């Protein structure tokens, strides 16, 4: 498996070489703080189990460290370091006054009960609370974490410090100070950028086929937004299966989302009385979705999905990264050589961290914005960032990813003064 932190540093090298700023940017090669802990949890049967936990604080030159906490059995320190670095780049790409951080716990959430999950969440805060806070480090949800987990973490944090500080974590429930519009923010941001991009290319949504890998929060919401805008969703995949429409008529993403929620599986219809669906579709192995022909491929799963091993089989014309680090640098180069446009993660999925920033801002100012206000404030930030990146890409004749890095690195706060 490709090392995500090494991949991240290769991306940094590409941008810094073009900028001739290798020496100045050395500080971005090493996280400011790497925190590790072993979390001991009493399980429901009375036994104890230990879980490895990380919090990497990469850079806070532009503001408090910012980044999610993921619960996943394959979490590694190198992965968390890479994600923290990408958060630094991401917050600077969209120009919000925050830095980059990330957290992780090595656990398969499917193997623990709700009570054990709560104990684990609280144990994470007990281990790291002295390094967290609304003006220091602001975590958020990530893979396999949600608003309930954020609520537990906030509650534990405030117990430990002895006073309220709702801005110390984002992605909370609305009742606990969460922001309206946060649940769709990552998809909204990616959609705004994709919508703007296809307008500049005179591409009609109704004639555009889309495949989405990953059907969690970001992927499912993106599917609905694209379906409502008239795009043809011809394939979707989760970790268990993939469905594809061989006739390219397009699926109803709202129906798929409802079936997934109600039945826990990915499908386009529930069997009718005759015992069969009246919609033509095929199930595939999840990884095969990447290699199906389409105009736009949305990557909304995990990192290292397109690599040197499968890049030759990619048939999409445009790729948008809602996931973090889904394409390795080697694959990235080949896609660029083939003229396949990649709209990179540090730009395409930055809607999530931008609305997290909005939540933090509402908490610190004791304000409450409507979902419409949040979306209205998000769109110009995403479009302005996209315009800066595309201008940089044209200036240097480089792919959008390297242009996004250069755009981020040009932020004064990231580059040490002479």
Task: Explain how this protein is built.
This protein has 418 residues and is α/β, with parallel strands linked by helices. It contains 12 helices and 12 strands. A 7-stranded mixed β-sheet has the order 9-8-7-6-10-11-12, sandwiched between helices. A 5-stranded mixed β-sheet has the order 1-2-4-3-5, with helices on both faces. Strand 3 (65-72), helix 2 and strand 4 (100-106) form a beta-alpha-beta unit. Helix 5 (185-200) crosses helix 11 (371-396) and helix 10 (351-365) crosses helix 11 (371-396). The longest helix is centred in the C-terminal third of the chain and has 26 residues, at 371-396.
Which stretches are poorly predicted, pLDDT < 50 over at least 5 residues?
none
Helix content: 25-40%
Strand order of the largest sheet: 9-8-7-6-10-11-12
Main sheet: strands, sense, barrel: 7 strands, mixed
Q: What is the tally of helical segments?
A: 12
Shape: globular
Strand content: 15-25%
The mean pLDDT is 93
Helix/strand-derived class?
A: alpha/beta
Pick out its properties.
alpha/beta, 5-stranded mixed β-sheet
Set out the fold topology.
Blueprint: H1 4-19, E1 33-42, E2 48-59, E3 65-72, H2 77-93, E4 100-106, H3 114-128, E5 137-141, H4 147-161, H5 185-200, E6 209-213, H6 217-228, E7 232-237, E8 242-244, H7 253-263, E9 282-284, E10 296-299, E11 318-321, H8 329-337, E12 341-343, H9 345-348, H10 351-365, H11 371-396, H12 400-409
Parallel strand pairs: 3-4, 3-5, 6-7, 6-10, 10-11, 11-12
Antiparallel strand pairs: 1-2, 2-4, 7-8, 8-9
């Amino acid at each position: 498996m490709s090392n995500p932190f090494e991949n991240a540093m290769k991306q940094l090298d590409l941008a810094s070489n073009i900028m001739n700023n290798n020496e100045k940017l050395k500080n971005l090669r090493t996280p400011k703080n790497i925190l590790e802990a072993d979390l001991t949890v009493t399980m429901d049967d009375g036994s104890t189990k230990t879980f490895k936990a990380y919090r990497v604080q990469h850079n806070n030159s532009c503001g408090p460290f910012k980044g999610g906490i993921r619960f996943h059995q394959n979490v590694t320190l190198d992965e968390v370091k890479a994600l923290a670095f990408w958060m630094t780049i991401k917050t600077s790409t969209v120009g919000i006054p925050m830095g980059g951080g990330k957290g992780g716990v090595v656990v398969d959430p499917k193997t623990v009960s709700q009570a054990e999950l709560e104990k684990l969440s609280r144990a994470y805060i007990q281990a790291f609370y002295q390094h967290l806070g609304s003006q220091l480090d602001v975590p958020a949800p990530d893979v396999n974490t949600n608003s309930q987990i954020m609520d537990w973490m906030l509650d534990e944090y405030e117990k430990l410090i002895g006073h309220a500080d709702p801005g110390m974590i984002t992605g909370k429930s609305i009742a606990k100070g969460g922001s309206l519009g946060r649940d769709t923010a990552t998809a909204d941001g990616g959609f705004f950028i994709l919508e703007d991009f296809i307008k500049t290319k005179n591409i009609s949504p109704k004639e555009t086929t889309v495949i989405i890998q990953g059907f969690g929060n970001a992927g499912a919401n993106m599917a609905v937004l694209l379906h409502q805008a008239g795009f043809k969703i011809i394939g979707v995949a989760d970790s268990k299966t993939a469905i594809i429409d061989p006739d390219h008529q397009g699926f109803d993403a709202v129906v798929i989302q409802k079936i997934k929620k109600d039945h826990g599986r990915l499908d386009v219809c529930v069997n009718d009385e005759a015992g069969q669906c009246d919609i033509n579709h095929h199930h595939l192995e999840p990884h095969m979705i990447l290699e199906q022909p389409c105009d736009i491929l949305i990557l909304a799963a995990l990192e290292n999905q397109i690599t040197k091993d499968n890049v030759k089989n990619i048939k999409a014309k445009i790729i948008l990264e809602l996931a973090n680090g889904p394409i390795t640098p080697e694959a990235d180069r080949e896609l660029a050589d083939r003229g396949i446009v990649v709209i990179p993660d540090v730009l395409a999925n930055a809607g999530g961290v931008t609305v997290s920033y909005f939540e933090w801002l509402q908490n610190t100012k004791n304000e409450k914005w409507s979902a419409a206000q949040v979306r209205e404030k998000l769109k110009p930030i995403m479009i302005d960032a996209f315009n800066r990146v595309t201008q940089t890409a044209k200036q240097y004749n480089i792919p959008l990813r390297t242009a996004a890095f250069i755009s981020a690195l040009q932020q004064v706060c990231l580059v040490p003064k002479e």
